[in-house]
Amino acid sequence: MKRLVLLRHGQSAWNKENRFTGWTDVPLSGQGMEEARKAGKVLKEAGFDFRLAYTSYLSRAIKTLWLTLEEMDLMWIEVKNSWRLNEKHYGALQGLNKIETAKQYGPEMVQLWRRSFDTPPQPLAADDERNPRFEARYAALTPAELPMTESLKEVIERLTPYWEIELLPALKQQNELLIAAHGNSLRALVMKLKNMSREEILEFNIPTGIPYVFEFDDDMNLVKDYFLGDPEEVKKLMEQVANQATGK
Question: Does residue 87 carry a catalytic annotation?
Answer without folding.
Answer: yes
